[in-house]
């Protein structure tokens, strides 16, 4: 009898170990819920740190489990970023296990330039993006004097021209929104013009969730339903409950657990956490730490 009890215990123990081994085997890990998308950061959030110490800042970013970054700023003459040649900056990213899927380029400065001048700059952007292995070149801004209906229509035509050039080079092109696209101009706004008058095959959309919620007064899904698959990149940031300024993720009013389930409808491929200012401690590095932690705890299960 005692021998049977011992054998039974051994069997149960061995069975439990086998089950555990199966659960935690490499193949089992592959089947566990694993994020589909890299956790990204728009580097503009930590612009002061990037100006002071590029290498140290990128190392810190990687230590927080960010895997992808979106660049801002570009030196077209030297094909460089942050005071480094593109290939050297790319190597610095690789040394820290980082990639860059997109960059914000100063295309808005060429809105009124002749086509040849515009396309010369676009070609320089393409060269830089290719050296960084970026997938998208993104138009990030529009000067205040250009925020009227006539200029939005001009913008749409320029976006199509740029998109065709970028696509021919094997890259993607996207437009990033702020608040001014949602200002009403006699029953129409700039975002409507961009969505209607640009070719979705040439011009994708990088949606800034904060500005859509604050300025458009709509939920992002309302736009996704209009043009499914076009919103290939997202900027994820929160809105303060009182001031409506930026705030750290989880401290504001934007409930991303209700937005993120629509990533497939939107066509999202990349996302970037961003916070342009209003840092709780006054230190942007503290804020990107808090944002990364919240994302990993609460949001990555959707991503």
UniProtKB/TrEMBL annotation:
MF annotations from Gene Ontology: isomerase activity
Record keywords, A-Z: Isomerase, Signal
SUPFAM superfamilies attached to this UniProt entry: Xylose isomerase-like (SSF51658)
Domain Xylose isomerase-like TIM barrel: 59-273
First and last residue of the signal peptide: 1-30
Gene3D superfamilies: Divalent-metal-dependent TIM barrel enzymes
Record protein name field: Sugar phosphate isomerase/epimerase
């Amino acid at each position: 009898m005692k021998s049977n009890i011992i054998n039974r215990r051994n069997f149960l123990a061995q069975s439990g170990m086998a089950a555990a081994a199966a659960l935690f085997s490499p193949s089992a890990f592959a089947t566990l819920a694993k994020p589909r998308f890299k956790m990204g950061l728009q580097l503009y959030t930590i612009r002061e740190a990037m100006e002071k110490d590029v290498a140290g800042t990128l190392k810190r970013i990687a230590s927080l489990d960010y895997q992808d970054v979106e660049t801002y700023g570009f030196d077209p003459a030297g094909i460089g970023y942050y005071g480094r040649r593109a290939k050297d900056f790319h190597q610095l990213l690789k040394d820290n296990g980082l990639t860059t899927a997109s960059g914000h380029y100063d295309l808005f400065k060429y809105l009124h330039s002749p086509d040849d001048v515009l396309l010369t700059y676009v070609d320089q952007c393409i060269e830089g993006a290719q050296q960084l292995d970026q997938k998208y070149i993104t138009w990030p801004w529009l000067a205040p004097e250009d925020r009227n209906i006539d200029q939005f229509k001009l913008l749409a035509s320029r976006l199509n021209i740029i998109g065709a050039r970028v696509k021919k080079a094997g890259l993607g092109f996207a437009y990033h929104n702020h608040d001014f696209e949602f200002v009403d101009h006699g029953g129409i706004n700039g975002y409507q013009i961009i969505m209607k008058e640009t070719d979705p095959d040439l011009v994708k959309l990088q949606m800034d969730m904060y500005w859509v919620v604050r300025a458009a007064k709509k939920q992002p899904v309302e736009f996704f339903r209009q043009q499914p698959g076009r919103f290939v990149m997202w900027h994820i940031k929160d809105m303060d409950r009182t001031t409506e300024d930026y705030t750290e993720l989880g401290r504001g009013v934007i409930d991303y657990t209700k937005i993120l389930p629509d990533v497939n409808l939107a066509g999202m491929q990349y996302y970037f956490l961003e916070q342009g200012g209003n840092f709780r401690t006054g230190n942007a590095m503290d804020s990107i730490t808090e944002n990364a932690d919240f994302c990993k705890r609460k949001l990555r299960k959707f991503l």
